[in-house]
Amino acid sequence: MPLACREPLEHPVLQPANAKSPAPPPAKTNSLLVRATAPPPDCRLFLKLDQNDRIRDLRASEVKLLLCNKAKVNNADFTSIFKVASGWGMVVSDKVRPALLNVTGLTIVPSTVWYTYVVPEVPNEL
Fold it and tell me: How far apart are CA 126 and CA 124, in angstroms?
């Protein structure tokens, strides 16, 4: 790292006598109730398949080619495609997302947001 990029070192002896002390750390909050930042949006799509569907046996590149042909989209618009328990998951660009959601003959659904709530009156195990 070049010297120009480094922050100046602070030494307690070299600081002026009237310098303010650093602010105390923020008080801890219950992390179950307060979320500091919103999670990033989940932009995955899922191709839901039956247990004995022939598409389950295909490779990721073959599934991508099948989806490109059915939705008439470009192969480069797929960021990633991966196998999941319900079929296939994929991350695609925003411009082809509506086209994939409207493909007939296949069940393609967007991911859903799940929330976990802690309720004091409900036991952890049944």
Answer: 7
